[in-house]
Fold:
Amino acid sequence: MSNQNQMIKQDNKEIRKTGIPHRAARPNVDIYEDKQGITLIADLPGVATEGLDIQVDQEILSIDAQIDIPMPSGQDLHVAGTRPTRYQRSFTISNELDVDNIEAVLKNGVLAMRIPKREQYQPRKINIRAA
Amino acid sequence: MFLRQHPLEDSLLHQFRHMEREMDRMLGAVGLKHSSGLSGASNYPQISLATSAEQVDIALFAAGMDSDAFDITVDRNHLVVHGKRVLPKEEQAEGALRKERFDGEFHHVINLPEDIDETRVDARYENGVLLISIPRREPPKPIQIKIQ
Structure:
């Protein structure tokens, strides 16, 4: 059990931001971990499914999303300076995680991703045979 | 003299903004939300505003809400938007590695041009953005006076 805790801790450390490209907004995220995997929830208001691009390259998970909102009056003023046109953020993910089985859902501008742990890192129930 | 005043003004403004943010943070900590309008002191949700001769468009970047979680009122040339975003409880379970997303109530008062037609406000919620369009009234046409 202590061994598993250590693995989770190590996992926590490895999830970090890797850089913010210029002129793109960094979306706010919540990340949760449980025994089976990681849940990553990102706020991407103004993004439709076709404008969302999620990629995993080796241990880097990157989110790149186009903000598309109809503003019929044209040029708009943004309260915090220039309105961003995209969201970009990337994370380094542990090799404990199974990147081939990521599930992603985008609803009302919220991206929810589920990244399971590889089977060998998931808790296993040991069946006890009758003696 | 004029040129020398600018850096001072900037720094005063900067300090004031900083103070405003600090106030917001403190009020937020005791559960009071300060109405910040366009001052940018409370930055959730982000707001964009566009105006043309015909209409005013406002966009509030508030993802993950239901359209009935917004309360929008127009009082003369003030647009008041109140909303509440409650994150699902299962998302707040143990094991949070990062918690950055806004959870709670927000309140914004946005100043609009004087000539808006407050009877024809159109609001819709799309892809996590609340879009509000308000047409502007036509300016009264000049009347030609003929000399008898």
User: Anything to note?
Assistant: The beta strands of chain A are 29-33, 37-43, 52-57, 60-66, 77-78, 86-92, 103-107, 110-116. Helices of chain A lie at 2-14. The CA atoms of residues 97 and 117 of chain A lie 4 Å apart. Residues 1-22 of chain A have pLDDT under 50 and may be disordered.
